[in-house]
Amino acid sequence: MRLAVDCRMYGKSGIGSFLAGVLPYLCADPGFDGLLLLAGEDNGDAVRAAVRDFASKTELVLCGVKPFSLRELLFFPRGIASRINSCGSYFSPYCNVPSGIRVPVYTTIHDLVFLDFPGLTGRLGVLARKFFYKYAVFRSKAVFTVSEFSRGRIEKLLACKKPVHVACNGIPRFMEEAKGQGRLDGIRKGNFVIFVGNIKAHKGLRTLLEAFPAFRAKTGAVLVIVGSAGNFRTGDEETRRLLEEGSDGIEFTGHVSDERLLVLLASARLLVQPSLYEGFGIPPLEALCCGTRAVISDIPVFREIYADFPVRFFRAGDAEDLEARMEEAWQDEGEIPPLPVKYSYGKAAAVIAGRLKEQL
After folding, report:
1. Alpha-carbon distance 171 to 176, whole Å?
2. How far apart are CA 185 and CA 266, in angstroms?
3. DSSP H or E stretch at residue 322
4. How confident is the model at residue 10 (pLDDT cuts 50, 70, 90)?
5. What's the maximum distance between 2 C-alpha atoms anywhere in the chain?
């Protein structure tokens, strides 16, 4: 299976996390022989470290062309395109497709939040994203996504007639290894609630900020937001006001390493994921893996993904209901039951590899 994989977004945001999760498993496939596109030296070092056990099976190609740029779309370097075309197929962990590629293309559309959730960007931004989504569908032999919810939205909003295969997210390898090695055992719970995400409106942080003062008054808890306050810029003035008013009970972690995130999730007493829209929603899965309870909104995708998991659902956007569910979870000192063995990047990679092999 000679496969070209776009690794330029490796380690960046949710797209990079998905790629980081599936790439080692793809490389481990007995039939894999890969060409990996790198964005630059720092990105290249991270990819090299991830696939070091499969160095003999991977060819690394430096490609400084930015994803979604005009150069990628119209003037992609012919030499790199030629090397990609020497492979059997091309896989992108997102929905960008360079020009000049003639081998079968497989793309990944994680969600359609910019089409489904108004106000995240302007009209031109929505049109640009819809163009890239539609172009990816047009160029793809098949599309991958991370949930049945997202599959339904892709088929409907993009009028997609190509096969759409679900390859769900999973728990990052460093978390699986830490749990398996017992490194999470004995970590004591702190007096804090953790939120992992960004300040974009669909993440629902405003609902949590509205619920938190009453919850803090009863419990004395602190809200720990993973990220930097400087990066939490928003046009949502109400969210900005709530952040400023509740600043004495809110802490920002700044950028955190994998190891620090692991400790934060394991020592938090509660994770809250108040999203109004997601394609999958990984933080609750990570929190549960680390032995931390999760209170999550009852949006359709969470009902799908976490139906069999020990989470508490609250009515999306309802601060009173969220505060009540947080209190219940805070007071629950029972053991978290074993989690279903349902999601892993190994399974996701098997879905991707299986579909690619079908074309051979």
Report:
1. 7
2. 9
3. helix 319-331
4. very high
5. 63
Question: In sequence order, which residues have a C-beta less than 8 Å from that of residue 163 and are 6 or more positions away?
Answer: 142, 143, 355
Inter-residue long-range contacts of 301-305, CB under 8 Å, 24+ positions, other chains counted: 301/147, 301/149, 301/150, 301/277, 302/273, 302/275, 302/278, 304/147, 304/148, 304/149, 305/147, 305/168, 305/280, 305/281, 305/343
| CA distance linking residue 302 with residue 296, whole number of Å | 8
CA–CA gap between residue 103 and residue 81 (Å, rounded): 10
Distance CA(79)–CA(84), nearest Å, equals: 9
Beta strands in the chain (DSSP E): 2-6, 33-38, 58-62, 89-91, 105-108, 140-145, 164-166, 192-196, 222-226, 250-252, 270-273, 293-297, 312-314
Identify the CA nearest to 294 among candidates 309, 308, 281, 284.
Answer: 284
Is the pTM higher than 0.70? The answer reads: yes
Other CB atoms within a 10 A radius of the CB of residue 123 amount to: 7
Question: 75 near 99, Cβ under 8 Å?
Answer: yes
Q: pLDDT by residue (tens digit) across 304-339?
A: 999 999 999 999 999 999 999 999 999 998 888 888
Q: Cα–Cα distance between 26 and 33 in angstroms, integer?
A: 9
Beta-carbon contacts of residue 342 (< 8 Å; ≥ 6 apart): 308
Region 26-34: what's the mean pLDDT? 92
Q: Report the 10 Å Cβ neighbour count for 159.
A: 9
